[in-house]
């Protein structure tokens, strides 16, 4: 179960440049998480763009290049929210399905014109080996059991298929890491207070970011779930990382 850092830099260089509701806690009860996202669904995509200074578009573009969905492929986009990423991945001709546990998020993304389904990542309603690839953007940290979800995703991906996950991470450069951790909770809490109908949701999101494992630890979890050739690429000083892996082919001995 190989884990490799920095193997995606060429892909990143090739990408074009693009400049009173419930509050979940870190126990991540699925129904609490779903209800929380239902409550912020209407303005969620806009809020992401504001809080990331527009970097979310750049991260999404690079993730799409790493995924490299081909015409005719079937791609599962988990924790897809309103389907903004799903629509991006589908532009190349792949059939991309947006799956999310939050009905509010899915309803707010109906205008995107991509197929959508309500689904729990730990109990996916799909047959074995249904998809050529699976992807998650900024959602896996909200799963109650990360490793179990990765195992379940592997079940529905074909042998030799791909996994691409874009998620917050840990800046490796100490000064950047210090500033990131020091101000993240404060900034997101203030943002939620002044621009959201559910400010507590943004406190949870900040806490979940700070509690998320670093690049190497997450890569190890992916490998332990049965995925091979795990590698990652840091984006924006490591504030975000893309992890890529593949499901072993049927004749694999590893």
From TrEMBL:
Family matches, as Pfam families: Ubie_methyltran
Pathway: Quinol/quinone metabolism; menaquinone biosynthesis; menaquinol from 1,4-dihydroxy-2-naphthoate: step 2/2
Highest taxon of source: Bacteria
Keywords, sorted A to Z: Menaquinone biosynthesis, Methyltransferase, S-adenosyl-L-methionine, Transferase
GO MF term set: methyltransferase activity
Enzyme class: transferase
Entry annotated with the keyword S-adenosyl-L-methionine: yes
UniProt EC number: 2.1.1.163
Keyword match Oxidoreductase: no
Residue runs in coiled coils: none
PROSITE patterns the UniProt entry points to: SAM_MT_UBIE, UBIE_2
Catalytic activity: a 2-demethylmenaquinol + S-adenosyl-L-methionine = a menaquinol + S-adenosyl-L-homocysteine + H(+)
InterPro entries found in the cross-reference section: SAM-dependent_MTases_sf, UbiE/COQ5_MeTrFase, UbiE/COQ5_MeTrFase_CS
Gene Ontology terms: biological process: methylation
Residues annotated to bind S-adenosyl-L-methionine: 82, 100, 120-121, 137
Stated family: Belongs to the class I-like SAM-binding methyltransferase superfamily. MenG/UbiE family.
Task performed by this protein: Methyltransferase required for the conversion of demethylmenaquinol (DMKH2) to menaquinol (MKH2).
HAMAP family assigned to the protein according to its UniProt record, in alphabetical order: MenG_UbiE_methyltr
PANTHER family: 2-METHOXY-6-POLYPRENYL-1,4-BENZOQUINOL METHYLASE, MITOCHONDRIAL (PTHR43591:SF24), METHYLTRANSFERASE (PTHR43591)
Protein name per its UniProtKB record: Demethylmenaquinone methyltransferase
């Amino acid at each position: 179960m190989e884990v490799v850092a920095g193997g995606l830099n060429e892909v990143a260089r090739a990408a074009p440049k693009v400049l009173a509701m419930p509050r979940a806690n870190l126990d991540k009860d699925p129904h609490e998480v779903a209800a929380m996202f239902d409550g912020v669904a209407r303005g969620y995509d806009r809020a992401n763009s504001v809080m990331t200074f527009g970097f979310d578009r750049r991260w999404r573009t690079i993730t799409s290049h790493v995924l490299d969905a081909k015409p005719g492929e079937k791609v599962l986009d988990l924790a897809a929210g309103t389907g903004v990423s799903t629509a991006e991945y589908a532009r190349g001709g792949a059939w991309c399905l947006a799956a999310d546990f939050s009905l509010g998020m899915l309803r707010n993304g109906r205008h995107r014109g991509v197929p959508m389904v309500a689904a729990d990542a730990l109990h996916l309603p799909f047959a074995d080996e249904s998809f050529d690839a699976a992807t998650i953007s900024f959602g896996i940290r909200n799963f109650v059991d990360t490793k179990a979800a990765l195992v379940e995703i592997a079940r529905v991906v074909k042998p030799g298929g791909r996994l691409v996950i874009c998620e917050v991470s840990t800046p490796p450069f100490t000064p950047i890491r210090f500033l990131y951790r020091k101000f993240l909770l404060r900034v997101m809490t203030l943002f939620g207070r002044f621009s959201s109908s559910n400010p507590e949701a943004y406190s949870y999101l900040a806490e979940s970011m700070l509690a998320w494992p670093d690049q190497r630890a997450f890569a190890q979890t992916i490998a332990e779930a049965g995925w091979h050739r795990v590698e990652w690429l840091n984006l924006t000083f490591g504030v975000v990382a893309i992890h890529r892996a593949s499901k072993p082919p049927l004749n694999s001995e590893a």
